Predict the 3D structure of the following.
Amino acid sequence: MAFSEKLITSLNDILRTRRKSVIIIHPQPDADALGASLAWKKFLERRGHEATIISPTEYTKNLNWLPGVDAVLVYENEAIKAKCHELLQNAELIFCLDFNNFSRLEQLGAIVQSAEAAKVLIDHHQQPEPFAQIMFSDTSYCATSEMLYDIIAALHCTDWIDEDLALCLYTGLVTDNGFFQFNNTTPRSMHIAASLLEKGVRPDYVSEKINNIFRENRLRFFGYCLHEKLKLVKDGKVAYMMLSSEEIKRFNLQSGDSEGLVNYPFKIEGVVVSAYFSEETDKIKVSFRSRGAVDVNQFARKHFEGGGHRNAAGGKSYLGLEKTEKKFLDALNDLPLYN
Ligand code: 5GP
Ligand code: MN
């Protein structure tokens, strides 16, 4: 079993006695955060719980086909803030999925932290803050969705996984391992994916829904970034793109539309780090990707108030584009670029 018996027993016990749950995910939730939370909500409801998902910010419309996603409460929506506060106050259990520190939640962090409910963390990122009474934290999983499958299996409940629940888990699993391309893909990921296909998931459907749903302006934006904005430094080992809010506005993008762009520079042989900087109203959001031993988790932690995984991390900067670029280039001198 992937998790200790003690951990599974403590989860089982707490699920038996507490039946009002809130599930929290990270801002700008990706398919793993959404897939895992939707699957866990279905699972909890099947067990007779009340369960509500709160996302700190809006989720991308690109994922509006995930079964049950309409029920996700978006905290940044002023009209439902009070309702979210009330749910958090009255919750008996708070599940924190696909993130592992409260600073990631921004404003919502303090509210979740001060809620009286018992907290359960289920996450696969590095260096978790030890804030939860029950911690499922394991970086060997490619996705939180992969972990949830194993948790459900350890609870002897795989029979409860119906096609919709399987679709949510499969989508989270394949998006976080790049459809089995990244080095976080393991025999276990493949076995779990196979079990989810046996529940009726169609891999071609998920691939199309994730990969081939661009609107024209989004593909043209990718083209613009790669043609006009891509810079290569450090003998072609580091690629980066910096986009101003004005440029982003010009392409009339929706949230989630830059998802995936940061992976394109790896098409160039020899690139081991790729970074994408996008200017938002109050900050610059940064996405980092790397290959092999190059550790962008540490890099993001040290220089950009962020974190994530060794080969996929994110962070932020409040310095403006020009100074952020200089900071990035300076910081690179500190980053060993072996592969
Ligand atoms: P993305 O570049 O796709 O936004 O994020 C890549 C990875 O880094 C994800 O696993 C995500 O959870 C993590 N990540 C992104 N932004 C942040 C951040 O600001 N703080 C931390 N700790 N992790 C982040
Ligand atoms: Mn994830």
Observations:
- The chain has two domains: 5-210, 216-334.
